[in-house]
Amino acid sequence: MNKKCGYVAVLGETNAGKSTLINKMVGQKVSIVSRKIQTTLSRTLGIAIYENSQIIFIDTPGFLHSNTKSAESLSKVAWDAFRETENILFVIDVNKKNFDASLALLKKIDTAKKVSLVMNKVDLIHKPELLKIAAIFNEARKFEKIFMVSSISGSGVKDIVKYLAEIVPQSDWIYAQDEVTDSSFEKYTSEITREHIYHRLHKEIPYKCKVETESYENQKDGSIKIVQNIHVKSNAHKIIFLGHKGGKIKAIGEAARKELSELLERNVHLFLHVLVDEK
């Protein structure tokens, strides 16, 4: 059976559920998920295998409607990723009250691109409303396919993977069969910790902290020691990170350590250091 391989860009507004969707399609976590908007700060590749097809997903920063330099930079990353492939999944959160921003973004996509609409979080609203929303988007553009899914439960997600496996071109696989992302070990493990920071501190600090895996070392007993630095902008933020008697950072470290142990299928010893970096 001839192998097939191709890239698919996943686009949409912030918090539409793109990262959760990619994780479901790949079959494990490759992109972090958070209640805070704009958690995907750089492009991440997730790699799924279905029968003889390798599908390489480009997860992108959601598009921010802001004039700040950071928003411009993030949007450029998203558009650059989008230009690399003709196949696009355009994800919308059907539970939103207003779709003007998504429709405006959709109209910016070249008409030559093959765009499929993914209506996400369909479990949250009634079917008649879903059909109305689908009609609104059908007026804006002709889609290759329309999928109605819940990326959290996984409902409908396999249909997307099967469709993409059919349309990617015949080609040798780019990645080994057991690879699920092109992220380095350092970046992958840092992202897991960053996700747990968002879960614990999402109302208390800006989400522009930076997590770096400084080192990792395999231990004789089969476990792994990971040392990470969390860079924050001020001493005030550092105090928030640490919490009363270090309780907050301990909770973050324990949650991240537990998930890393499950993902890496080995015991993890995680050491977190909070550093002030005004830049």
Strand and helix layout:
Layout lengths: L3 E9 L5 H9 L17 E7 L2 E7 L9 H15 L3 E7 L6 H8 L6 E7 L6 H14 L5 E4 L7 H11 L17 H17 L8 E9 L5 E9 L2 H8 L4 H18 L3 E9 L3
Parallel strand pairs: 1-3, 1-4, 4-5, 5-6, 8-9
Antiparallel strand pairs: 2-3, 7-8
Helix pairs in contact: 6-8
Please characterize this protein's 3D structure:
Helix content is 36%, strand content 24%. With 279 residues, the protein is of the alpha/beta class. A 6-stranded mixed beta sheet has the order 2-3-1-4-5-6, sandwiched between helices. Strands 7-8-9 form a 3-stranded mixed beta sheet. α6 (185-201) packs across α8 (247-264).
Give a quick rundown of the structure.
The protein contains 8 helices and 9 strands.
What does the radius of gyration come to? 20 Å
Strand content: 15-25%
The strands making up the biggest β-sheet line up spatially as 2-3-1-4-5-6
The strand count comes to: 9
Helix-strand pattern: EHEEHEHEHEHHEEHHE
Q: Taking all residues together, what is the mean pLDDT? A: 83
The low-confidence parts are 34-41, 63-75
H/I helix tally: 8
Give the proportion of residues in helices: 25-40%
Question: What does the main sheet amount to?
Answer: 6 strands, mixed
Derived from helix and strand composition plus strand pairing, the structural class reads alpha/beta
Q: Kindly, what is the distance between the CA atoms of the first and last residues, rounded to a whole number of angstroms?
A: 53 Å
**Please, what is the oligomeric state?**
single chain
What is the molecular shape? Answer: globular
